[in-house]
Amino acid sequence: MTIFLILAPYGVYTFLMFMTSATVSVFAGSAICIATIAIDVARGRSVKILAAGSAILFAGIGLFLALHPTLSTLGVKLSVDIGIFVISLGSMLARRPFTLQYAIESVPAETAAMPGFLTANYIITAAWTVAALLMMAANIVLLYFPGLPVWSGLAVAFAARNSAIYFTKWYPEYRQIKYGAPDGALPEAQ
């Protein structure tokens, strides 16, 4: 459920990019980010860096498009990917990897205090940062080589996101096996 809520704004944005204008797509993504923030607040959870940053990112791109509708669809996709990359990398540089907030809320406090817990979250956030970097690179290649099929960029984005999702689910299990953490001690991607 958690992964679904995290990725819902991006899924809706991507789907709507095929169905309607980029402006509508990014504002819809922003609205869903705000809805996920509201769900977290209603459940007594913290406002997440990724959700808040993404809401601002989508709304900012939407406002830019409303004022300057000349930005191409590929330009919008590249802007979103750059924004996700900046949020992800920025969270690590600020020493608060964005996955940490989700992980802390899904494990007991004594587990969150373990030294390897923070390291694991840096590694998982780094995987998402690399995925965003790959998506950016694919969009840059499509921007400079417009003769390439659009599906090639979609394939890279699909592979990068799915790899990051898989890694997010796999890595805590790996650490549990490698370091012998007790069951339920490490966060599970839900």
From TrEMBL:
Identify the keywords attached in UniProt to this record, alphabetized: Membrane, Transmembrane, Transmembrane helix
Q: Under what name is this protein listed?
A: Intracellular septation protein A
Superkingdom is Bacteria
Q: Which residues cross the membrane?
A: 12-37, 49-68, 122-144
Say which species the protein is native to.
Bradyrhizobium zhengyangense
